[in-house]
Each structure stands twice: as structure tokens, then as C-alpha cells.
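Hi L.,

As promised, UbiC transcription regulator-associated domain protein:
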Amino acid sequence: MTKAKYQEIEEILRNKIISGHYKIGDLIPKEMDLVKNYNVSRPTISHAVQDLVNQGYLERRKHVGTIVKQTKISQEFTQVLQSYNSEMTEKGLTAQTQVLFFKKIPASKEVASALNLKENAQVYKLTRLRSVDQNPLVVVTTYLPADKLIDFEEIDFTKQSLYQELEQRELPIIHVKRKLEVKSADGMTADLLNIKEKDPVFYFHTYGYFKKELPMEYSIATYRGDENYFMIDLRK
């Protein structure tokens, strides 16, 4: 099938972005300059550029122009059980982890219910800021039953994967349930993720189970809405 002219221009511009000819933060030429460069109409250029904006490759900025932006990162964790580092490595990206909080605390009513514990039972609370290429993407707070995890506080989770550590202890997460909400970022979350307060964020509750459907993990993850999207692959 023959491509429409705007699709041809869109593909040319997209390839220039992917190849690095236009780098992140660069202004692309003005629409009238693109009209002259490709010998097409203004509506054709506008259509091509708008499609690339919709796809996340470009961003229009008032009084500035149209710039190349970092494309959103596809997160497959809605359908695959693997560590964040492993998922980012598969995409050719470099992940970083900063541990913001890690210690034993008494379980709140919500956490105790999620982990099938008595209220105030001891749990580990682990809060991590996950980034890609130094760009913060998600804040994750994870709760785990302390009585099953001897010497757990000695683990350096800036380097070690939580799921790999649990597997080494013969407590592998083999089944998860996740609940997704879209919320507005509060002030603290906005500061950590380098976004504006009240910007939209993806808010996931994860319930992780090991053998015999025993609860092992309760996590709350807040993902930037402007840098992530989630793949869901369904088959009958």
C-alpha cells in the first residue's frame, strides 16, 4: 500500500530522531523550512509533526518551537515477572537505584492485611528511587514480612535485585496481582520524580506471592506519566 505523503515525512523525521541526527533537546527545523526542504505542503508537514508529538518523539513548546524529547519507556512488568534492572537492560538502558529508606517498622493495618500478618507485626519497609540514564522514573515502596528474612538489612539494594535476593533465599515471587490507578503527584513525589505537583502519575499496588500462594511482597510504585507507558498483551 502506498504511503500518504505525511507518512513519508513522518518516517524521515522519526529516523533522523532515532539515528541521533536530531538529539534529545534539539529544535527541529520550523515547519516552513521543512516545507521547502521536502517540497510538500504546510498541512502535510503539520500532520507529520503532530503524529510524532502524539507518539512522544517531539514536544511543542510555546515561544520556543518543536523539540526532540526522550521517548516514553515501555514497561512490560504488567505481563512479565522480572526485575526492573533486567527489564531496562533488555531495552539497552542503564538503570540506577537509590535507596531512600530501609528498616524494620510495625505493619500498618493496610500492610498487615496485604501480607496476611497481624497489625504491628514487624515488616521491612524498602523505598527505592529507580532511574534510567540518571532520569528518575519511578518511586517504589516495598513491604516484606521480617520474620522470613534473616539478616535482610545487610543487603545493598542499590546493587542487588530484590527478586533475585528472594529467589536465592528460596522465597521466589511466582505470582503477582497488580492494581493500577492514575493519580496526581503530591509534592514529595513530584520532587523525587522531577515533575510538577499534580502532574499525572501511574500508581500501582503489587501483591507478590511465593509457594502455596503465601504473601511475600506488598509494593506501591509511582511511575511518571510522561516517561512511561505499559504494555498489556492478551491472548485467547
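The mean pLDDT is 87.

Thanks again for sending the construct details.

K.
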